[in-house]
Structure formats: C-alpha cells, structure tokens
Amino acid sequence: MAEAHQAVAFQFTITPEGIDLQLSYQALNQIYLSGVRSWKKRVSRMRNSLIKGVYPASPSSWLFVVIAILATMYMRSDPSMGLITKIQQHLPLRYTENTQMTSVFTLVFSTLLWLSLILALRFCLKLLLSYHQWMFEQHGRVSNVTKVWVTLLRLLSSRKPLLYSYQTSLPHLPVPPIKDTVSRYLQSVRPLLTDPEYKRMTELANHFELNLGNRLQRYLKLKALWATNYVSDWWEEYIYLRSRGPIMVNSNYYGMDFLYVTPTPVQAARAGNTITALLLYRRKTRVPGTVIPLCAAQCERMFNTTRTPGDQTARGIILSSSTDVLQHWQDSEFVAVYHKGRYFRLWVYRAGRLLSPREIEYQIQRILDDLSPPQPGEDKLGALTAGDRMPWSRMRKQYFSSGINKRSLDAIERAAFFITLDDEEQGMRGEDPAGNLDRYAKSLLHGKCYDRWFDKSFSIVIYKNGKSGLNAEHSWADAPTVAHLWEYTLATDAFQLGYTEDGHCKGDVDRTLPMPQRLVWDIPSEAQVCISLAVAQALADDVDCHVFPFREFGKGRIKKLRVSPDAFIQIGLQLAYYRDRGGFCLTYEASMTRLFREGRTETVRSCSNESSAFVKALENGEAEEQCRPLFRLASERHQNLYRLAMTGAGIDRHLFCLYVVSKYLGVESPFLKEVLSEPWRLSTSQTPVQQMELFDLKNNPEFISLGGGFGPVADDGYGVSYIIVGEDMINFHVSSKHSCSQTVSNTFVSFISQSKTCLFNLHNS
C-alpha cells in the first residue's frame, strides 16, 4: 500500500559489501516536525496550567511581590515582621554568605506571601460567586448590593481568564434542606393528583422526612463535603453509563444546519470547512465574554472521546449490572470518516500544521471518489453502537479486542470526532418542505442505524447536497455545551472561512498528501451474523419527528408583554398538552447548574399549581380580565422555579441522590421509589443561542439556525425542544412514538401553534 511505503523512514539491505542503509530524509523531517508540534503543545499546556493555576493573579505578579519585598528590605524595613528571620533559622543554609542567605530567605518569604495572596483572592472570588440573589431581582431593578457585587467581581476577574481559570473558584453545589425539597415536591405534584392521592403522597413524604430522610441526608452532606459535586458523578453513571438499552434515540440528540441557507452544495467542500472550524474550536483557550463565569468541566471531553460498552459488573449494591466507560485521549491528529459502508482514517495534521480547508476538501473528495467495496461485515458495523449495550460489549470483547480489528476500532475511537459522508440529500427543499424537515430530523437522530458511530462524543453528518448536522452522545456533556460548539462551527464555516465562487474551500493544496487510510477489518462470518439491525431499526421506525418553524412572532413581541419568553413558551406547552390529552402531566424542563463546579442540569417542574389554574380558567371560558392575572402569576412562578433550579434549590437531583444513598445502604423507601418511577410524559428543553454576535441576523437574516432535538423520554409522551432565534422566530422540534396511538407529533405541534397565538391574543385584546 502506498501509505505504508510513505510511512517508512529508512530501509536497509544486506550485501556482500555490508549493510546498505537508505534514509528517507523527507519522512524523517515529517517525524521531526510532528515531534516539534507535540512539544509545542506540551509547553502550551504547561503555560496554560500555570496561568489558570494562579488565577485571579498572574505569574508576573510573583516578580512584583519579590521586587516590592526586596525594596523594603533594602530600605532596612522588615515587612515580614520577623518571619524572614524565622525562615533563616529553620533552613539548612549555614555556610553561605549573609547577604546571599538574606536574599534566598526573602525569596522564599515572597513566594509564600504571593501564594497566600492567591489563596485569599481565590477565596474572595468564591464568596462572590456564591452570591445568587441577583438572579431573583426584577429586570431593570438592580439592588445596591448587586451593583457592588458586580463591581467587585469585575475587579477580581479583570484579567482575561482562560477556559478553566474559574474552576477552582466556583462554589460547590449545596445540598438543600430535606424539608424544603419535600415541600417543593408536594407542591409540584398537587395539580396532577386527586385529593385522596395527594393525601396519600403527603403521608408518604412526611414519614420519609421525619424518619429515613434525615439519615440519608447526613450521608449526602458528608459526600458534599468530600466530593467536588454531590450529584454529577452519580448522575453520569446511573442515568447514562449504566443504561443497557440503545443510546440511539433514547439518549443521543441532534443539531441541525441553517434553515434557509446551505453555504455550498459541494459535499467535500462543506466537510472541509466544517472539519477545520471544529479543529479551530478545539484550539480555543478563552471563555466567552460574560460577567458570570460558568463551569467549563464538560468541555474537557468534547474531542477525542468515546463511550465504550462495559462488560464488567459495577461495584456496589445498587444495580448488579455492567457499566459503560467514557474514554478520553489527550490529543488526536485525525478524524474517522464513514462513506458507503467503508471506514477511513483521515489525518488532518501534516508536519505539525493543520491542513487547510482546501486540503481537507481534497482528501474528502478522494474518499468520495474511492469505489472500493466494503469488506465483509464492515458496512453495517456501526449498528453495534445503535442497539443494546450488552450484545455490543460481548462482540467487542470476542472479536475486537486484539489484532487488526482492535487497531481499526482504536482508529475510530481515538479519532477527534466522527464524520459521515451521507449519500442522501436533506433540508427544507422540494415540493414538501415540511415533510423534508421531518425526514432531516429523523436522519440526524438515527440515520440508517448503521451509518453513524453513536458512541463518539459527537458525529458530524455531511449530506450529498452540502447540508450538515450533528449527532451527540449525552453522557459526557449536556446540550448547551454542544450547542456552543455547533454555533461556532456554523458561523466560522459561513462567515470566516467562506467559499470560492464555484463553492470550493479557499486555499492551496499540497497534492503530495498521502491518501486517506482505509481501515481494514477481519470480521468472521459468525460475527457478521451477530451484527443485527433489528432492535435499532424497530426503535428508529417508531420515532415520529416533526420540526416546526413558528414565524408569527418571537422573543421581541413576547418581551413587549413583559413576560419571560421561556415562561411564555412553557405555559403554552401546558395549554397545548391539556388540549391534546385533556389533562396535565409531569413536565420536565432542563435547566443548567453550571454556576457551580462540575454542575450539569436540574429539572424545572413546569406544571405548577399556577399554570394549571390559568389553563383551566382559560379552557372553562373565564373572562380575559380574570385570565390575565392568572397568567402573570403562572409566569412569575415558572421564573422562580427556574431560578431555584439554577441556584441549587431544585427537587429532582436531590431526591435522586437520596435514592442512590438508600440503595447503597440497602434500605427501601416507598416515597423515593414512587417519586423516581413517575414518568415524564412531557420532556422539554430550550436550546440556548449563546453567540448571537457571530451571526449578525440584522444583516444576514437568512442565516437562521434550526436548533436541534431529541427522542421522547416516555413511550406515551412527547419530547419538545425549542430554540428562540432572533426576535421573530421560534423553532420547535417535537418527537413521539408511532406505537402510542395517543401521541401524534404533528397534532401536538398544531396545538402548540394555537396555544402561542391564543396567549399572545389574550394580552393584546
């Protein structure tokens, strides 16, 4: 193979005259340049570690402290108040000249003083970041305390921070009082239960609070003192990694391209710019400009990460089952590419430099032009990541743990990310734009069930007509982290990198680049029989997706009503569900807890007493004068619930952790068991737009993002994702299951549309 010959740095032959050594200086030069790049990255990491390690101070501040102390010593003043003399007595430097000894001891004291100042500044920063009352203040009515807080926070964080600079200064997630959690839980289920059911649940809750609850709470507080975050590790393990069902549809989620625009119709060119933009994002070391820092821990495993199926039994008493493992590698210089049943390794660095977008396009085109057929068992291999986890675990152990199959599997799993060059066309196009949008969503959510690698941290899909999209694995991070990456990628692709007039990437091409490496497999016939699509295909066929761009009004007109756009949408969803199913249900809205170190998400229980009272009044034909104040109360209640969730006073993560502790202790709690078995029939999430400045929708209104979506959480429920785009549009992604006759995504979307219009007209009449 050509690439194998190019990889050889030297050859030798034995002749009668001796050994004939032939060196390939070009290959040796490539090795040298790659080594230089590796060392540059190591030095850069060390530098960044030092900068973030001393934040909010700077490394140069050490020199300032040393000079200041030496200056005061020169003026025959002792700023240490005798500490330098104490240090001199305890360090074994007896035979050095007195002046040299004094300088050394002054240096030691200055360093200790500098470190003490860093710790003091970091402690002050942590205290400031523990203040969350600003979130509960009305818009435009900022208290003096909050104004002082903002000023102090800006002073302490005036140096431009790196991505992880704030990590050690972020507060830990607090454990709420068990009395508060139980009380909030009972309030949240009141509109869902009859009077006898509510009385029974109240008795269960009170018995738990007064007896077992306090015991479990003590263990949880002990964990909170010891661990960085008392929720996140258990949440990742028990909610995601221990799940034995398919992660396709059930856990993974998707992100879409622009709604109206496709920057280029050339598939290879779109792939070239997209790959380049993603790798440029990987280089980013700065946080977005914001006064309030958020935890960046989820960014650590964004690239070079794969979820691998576990076959070992998890330790502990909770579940005697296997657990998956998230594997992360420090760096990767290649991506894995799938096209028409074949897998390739595409190197994106050469001689220590990132290939230009035009060069990556050139390499992608070579893959597209490759007409070689898939090897036996290769084309459907990705189906293993789409089905149940245990069969995949057994297959991996038996057939992919050694030899050529392990090397090829390692190439996929160690890749920076995964690329699918899809042979279909997608997007809002043709005579059926709405139907094509739905098919676009389903394609990104599950594809053909074998042409994505669902275990990768994220997979990029580039379609034949240049449309793109993303499928992300959920265990390593939540949607806002991936949305931030995807926003940057779309904006960089369209506005910074750009294309030539004929739709190709810009830049020059080094045509001596080696061919992308075709991965080689040796999959025996008995293993090929075990690669089954049955489970994944049934799951994919059952999903009903509908994407709906709501264009009647958006955030701008909602804000004129002096209502939170998110509260407006959530109350509208309650009204839509009531009209669809004739009642209320337990509703999940995801909020983030990244104000705390290693924070992930918390649940906002959007179905409240106030929202249900408003919906009932509206549906019972009450006068508008009576409905408006009820709507205002429901909106304020929802905002308060969201704020409580963000500031560590939510309900569900606390109860979940108490349940985990109870299982470790081997005790049963009827209350916790019932709470955690309740189905979320309406699961909702807002995709935040975090970098609007990258798009400039005023001058480029056609570059509107479609957002993304996910599968339904309950078999008889809906999954609803929405993105508030600019001032005049809200995009909805609704999913359900065909197997449930009571849920039809298209019907529910029509109720959503009616509800939004109804709420808006209520305030304008």
TrEMBL record:
<dbReference type="Pfam" id="PF00755">
    <property type="entry name" value="Carn_acyltransf"/>
</dbReference>
<feature type="domain" description="Choline/carnitine acyltransferase">
    <location>
        <begin position="173"/>
        <end position="753"/>
    </location>
</feature>
<comment type="similarity">
    <text>Belongs to the carnitine/choline acetyltransferase family.</text>
</comment>
<keyword id="KW-1133">Transmembrane helix</keyword>
<dbReference type="InterPro" id="IPR042231">
    <property type="entry name" value="Cho/carn_acyl_trans_2"/>
</dbReference>
<dbReference type="GO" id="GO:0004095">
    <property type="term" value="F:carnitine O-palmitoyltransferase activity"/>
</dbReference>
<keyword id="KW-0276">Fatty acid metabolism</keyword>
<keyword id="KW-0812">Transmembrane</keyword>
<keyword id="KW-0443">Lipid metabolism</keyword>
<dbReference type="GO" id="GO:0015909">
    <property type="term" value="P:long-chain fatty acid transport"/>
</dbReference>
<protein>
    <recommendedName>
        <fullName>carnitine O-palmitoyltransferase</fullName>
        <ecNumber>2.3.1.21</ecNumber>
    </recommendedName>
</protein>
<dbReference type="GO" id="GO:0005741">
    <property type="term" value="C:mitochondrial outer membrane"/>
</dbReference>
<dbReference type="Pfam" id="PF16484">
    <property type="entry name" value="CPT_N"/>
</dbReference>
<dbReference type="GO" id="GO:0006635">
    <property type="term" value="P:fatty acid beta-oxidation"/>
</dbReference>
<dbReference type="InterPro" id="IPR039551">
    <property type="entry name" value="Cho/carn_acyl_trans"/>
</dbReference>
<keyword id="KW-0472">Membrane</keyword>
<feature type="domain" description="Carnitine O-palmitoyltransferase N-terminal">
    <location>
        <begin position="1"/>
        <end position="47"/>
    </location>
</feature>
<feature type="active site" description="Proton acceptor">
    <location>
        <position position="474"/>
    </location>
</feature>
<dbReference type="GO" id="GO:0009437">
    <property type="term" value="P:carnitine metabolic process"/>
</dbReference>
<keyword id="KW-0813">Transport</keyword>
<feature type="transmembrane region" description="Helical">
    <location>
        <begin position="104"/>
        <end position="125"/>
    </location>
</feature>
<dbReference type="InterPro" id="IPR000542">
    <property type="entry name" value="Carn_acyl_trans"/>
</dbReference>
<dbReference type="InterPro" id="IPR032476">
    <property type="entry name" value="CPT_N"/>
</dbReference>
<feature type="transmembrane region" description="Helical">
    <location>
        <begin position="54"/>
        <end position="75"/>
    </location>
</feature>
<keyword id="KW-0496">Mitochondrion</keyword>
<keyword id="KW-0012">Acyltransferase</keyword>
<comment type="pathway">
    <text>Lipid metabolism; fatty acid beta-oxidation.</text>
</comment>
<dbReference type="InterPro" id="IPR023213">
    <property type="entry name" value="CAT-like_dom_sf"/>
</dbReference>
<keyword id="KW-0808">Transferase</keyword>
